[in-house]
Design brief:
The complex is a heterodimer of chains A (108) and B (113). By secondary structure, chain A is an all-beta fold. Helix content of chain A is 0%, strand content 61%. In chain A, a hairpin with a 2-residue loop joins strand 6 and strand 7. With 113 residues, chain B is mainly beta. Chains A and B meet through strand 4, strand 5, strand 9 and strand 10 of A and strand 5 and strand 10 of B.
């Protein structure tokens, strides 16, 4: 079955609104990573976050191992935040399970 | 800042042809990877290569093969492309032990007609 479930599948925001993206995983965790993919573009690693909370600018990632979930919070969204957000679970070396992603559209 | 380079950006070819994609990283990383991203944006690992040790995802068809001249380069060859090979191929590199944080190239988009 699917190792990584992401929600929502898509999200439309007005510029300035906040976004909360969720990632749930069905297996034990070794590491967790969040990525951003520009529309038709390359993949950028946002956070490596196996546990706890990390901040980077307007982004906050929180991983709760016991609950097998990780979230990505985007505050004060901007149109340039539009794209696909992927979470990836790394239960062991060389195995990478990616979610299907959340497609975010921020409208001005 | 781009540190993982891939060429070409796009490639269109016909069924049965051979293609080769290049990847170079300037980060000094020890491990490189190839991923396939399908039309549903699912990322699946194909290969990883570390210190001349190749680890293959067993679901990858044999027509795919990685080629490495040194630890900064990992190319991908497809011997005889099939329509289902149409996808974006992403190259990445990492330093094992540093949380497996990976740095990705821009990708090569392949279209098989």
């Amino acid at each position: 079955g699917q190792q990584v479930q992401q929600s929502p599948a898509s999200l439309v925001l007005q510029e300035g609104e906040n976004a909360e993206l969720q990632c749930n995983f069905s297996t034990s965790l070794n590491s967790m990573q969040w990525f951003y993919q520009r529309p038709g573009g390359s993949l950028v690693s946002l956070f490596y976050n196996p546990s706890g909370t990390k901040h980077s600018g307007r982004l906050t990632s929180t991983t709760v191992i016991k609950e097998r979930r990780s979230s990505l919070h985007i505050s004060s969204s901007q149109t340039t935040d539009s794209g696909t957000y992927l979470c990836a679970l790394v239960p062991g070396y060389q195995n990478f399970y990616f979610g299907k992603g959340t497609s975010l559209t921020v409208i001005p | 800042e781009t540190a993982v380079f891939q060429t070409p950006n796009y490639h269109v070819t016909q069924v049965g042809n051979e293609v080769s994609f290049n990847c170079k990283q300037t980060l000094g990383h020890d491990t490189m990877y190839w991923y396939k991203q399908d039309s549903k944006k699912l990322l699946k690992i194909m290969f990883s290569y570390n210190n001349k040790q190749l680890i293959v995802n067993e679901t990858v068809p044999r027509r795919f093969s990685p080629q490495s001249s040194d630890k900064a380069h990992l190319n991908l060859r497809i011997k005889s492309v099939e329509p289902e090979d149409s996808a974006v191929y992403l190259c990445a590199s990492s330093i094992p032990g540093q949380g497996d944080t990976q740095y990705f190239g821009p990708g090569t988009r392949l279209l098989v007609l």
